[in-house]
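Q: For a teaching handout, I want to show students what a protein-ligand complex looks like in token form. Below are the inputs, and the small molecule is calcium ion. Please produce the holo structure.
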Amino acid sequence: MTAPIVLDSDPGIDDAVALQYLLGTGLWDLKAYTTVGGNVPASQTFRNGRALARAFGIDGDVPVHRGAGRPLTRLPYSAAGEFHGAEGLGAERLPDASVPEQTETSAQAMLRLSRQYEGELTVCATGPLTNVALALTEDPDFARRVKHLVFMGGAAEVPGNITPVAEFNAWADPDAVDLVVSSGIRYTMVGLDATHGWRFTKDHLAVLEDAGEGMALTARLMRYYLEAYTEAAGSPLHDPLAVGVCADESFVTAADGTVVVECASELTRGKTVFIPYDSDYPRAYYAESPLVAARTAHRGRVALGTGPRDFTADFVTTLLKRPGVA
Ligand SMILES: [Ca+2]
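A: Here is the structure, written as tokens, with calcium ion included.
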């Protein structure tokens, strides 16, 4: 028995292996692979999404949609090419899918699927939240129809990675994240607090490189990704962890609370302020600011660290179950 899910993504290397991991779990019925501008521009993430669908043998079954080309209310920004390569997938130039291009946008596909699978649909977002915000703007009831949104983004109690205080996806479209977390949608934020705890190392790479032709693309992508990070601890598994948490929260430790995103400041743009909520000891933060205090009515789950279940081990084992064809 599999559950319906949409993967909303800006591929991107860790997005690519997040797709492969999702397929490998066997837990999900992937209804759409929706792309969004982020790591590279939207036209490129769409092309990469189609190419990955072909590489993992799902292009005939899973539609790939084109997403928002710029943030909700801001000018486009320069992308994160240094981690992902000029076209977003390391040094790869993968062939396009053989099926015709979808004309329905990512936000439209999400809205349609939320009606078709009302109360059942999980949305996993591993890029900027622009598409999800657009769906909510078009129809605020999207928040109620979606079963669970898990998004990779933000930094609750740790420094950022694109500025000292902001994580890339939250920085890229802060207005979108703020709209989403105040919409009433049931959400779990999987940010740097947790993703920096699950690392992919040279030893894990060796397992993939020894696994033969079906893992060759994955191994090349992960080698590129590993070399882009200079930290000895290895590369954080940002996007795959969000997919993992869709099925099992025990990969992280999480707490209830409110997220408010800094949208007004250039200096702290995209900082995700986490306001914890403890039902035993409720505390009135921001009592002098009625606007911020009102926001604490909207609570979600926020990952604050690694959990008891070993995500990196599950990630590697699961990838091996889902070889690629390119
Ligand atoms: Ca991503």
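A: Two things your students might notice: The two ends are 29 Å apart (CA to CA). The chain has one domain: 3-319.
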